[in-house]
Amino acid sequence: MPTIIDGKKTSQDIKNEIAARVAEIKSEGGKIPHLAAILVGNDGASQTYVGAKVKACHEIGFESTLVRMEDTVSEEELLAKVEEINENPDIDGLIVQLPLPKHISVEKVTDKIKPEKDVDGFTPANVGRMALNWPAYVAATPYGIVELLKRYQIETSGKHCVVIGRSHIVGSPMSILMARNGYPGNATVTLTHSRTQNLKEIAQTADILIVALGKPEFVTADMVKPGAVVIDVGIHRVEDSSKKSGFRLIGDVKFDEVAEKASAITPVPGGVGPMTIASLLYNTLLAAERKVY
Ligand code: GUN
């Protein structure tokens, strides 16, 4: 059986480590990390995610501020709110939950966030710093994967890492992080996407397969090399009348059959997902301690 890479436990370990540091900061009379989140509108998933972020802040001793705005808010009003938080010295980190209503430019809003407070790692400054291997806030999902590889001591140097999916928030940064000089890193990376030819043959050569294309159970056992490490970033709800909730969660990887071939694999749920909040909290701690800028 493969090693099951337990993101739930690892994220709890990280939260405990951050909580211990917050306790130290308190005893030293230092600045308590403070995260602000802006939530526009009433999207159910976004409300759940932001609620989980605020709750996690509370659990580990951070301060948090949730700013809610109507989905009819103008772009100017939202930009003004971002600016106000940028200038508020008590707030260390700011996230604007995505997606935003269609009449608001994500680029304009992202670009308005002060890079020093951009704990989502979405601004051009932080993406560029990450690509240069400078100190940076790395986006939550790629950073969570990096931490899982580290804490499970997965060898990456000289390995062939195949990333499926080229999104700005997962696939693209992941390919950069795996290729960079350091650990995890020093891998030979192939970044694949919807136009890639022979995807199956390429995936079969992966020592480390990172799957983030957003298609339920896309990766099947015949696409995976025996002994590969498989990281599944996908999360999808499927109806399941045998569950009390009426649904269950599945990933981009057909878990049962791929697990039989892999040396290590992340489950869904309980793999990459829980790591994202831990990453956000870690970035907020770095912001409060001025460790990046
Ligand atoms: N929407 C989905 N994922 C994220 C995230 O990591 N940060 C923000 N701000 N919005 C999201």
Structural description of this entry:
This protein has 293 residues and is of the alpha/beta class. The protein folds into two domains: 87 residues, Rossmann fold, CATH 3.40.50; 134 residues, NAD(P)-binding Rossmann-like Domain (Rossmann fold), CATH 3.40.50. 38% of the residues lie in helices and 16% in strands. The chain is built from ten helices and eleven strands. The strands form three sheets. The chain has a six-stranded parallel sheet with strand order 1-11-8-7-5-6. α2 links the parallel β2 and β3. The longest helix has 21 residues. The radius of gyration is 19 Å and the shape is globular. The mean pLDDT is 98. It binds guanine (GUN). The site of guanine (GUN) has 6 residues, from β4.
CATH class membership of the largest domain: Alpha Beta
Bulk shape: globular
What hetero molecules are in the model?
guanine
Number of strands: 11
- Whole-number tally of structural domains: 2
Rg measurement, Å: 19 Å
Q: What's the main sheet like?
A: 6 strands, parallel
The portion of residues forming beta strands comes to: 15-25%
Number of helices: 10
- Class by SSE composition: alpha/beta
Neighbour order of strands in the largest sheet: 1-11-8-7-5-6
Low-confidence stretches: none
Instruction: Report the mean per-residue pLDDT as an integer.
Output: 98
Superfamily (CATH H level) name of the largest domain: NAD(P)-binding Rossmann-like Domain
Helix content: 25-40%
CATH architect. name of the largest domain: 3-Layer(aba) Sandwich
Termini gap: 44 Å
Order of helices and strands: EHEHEHEHHHEHEHEEEEHEH
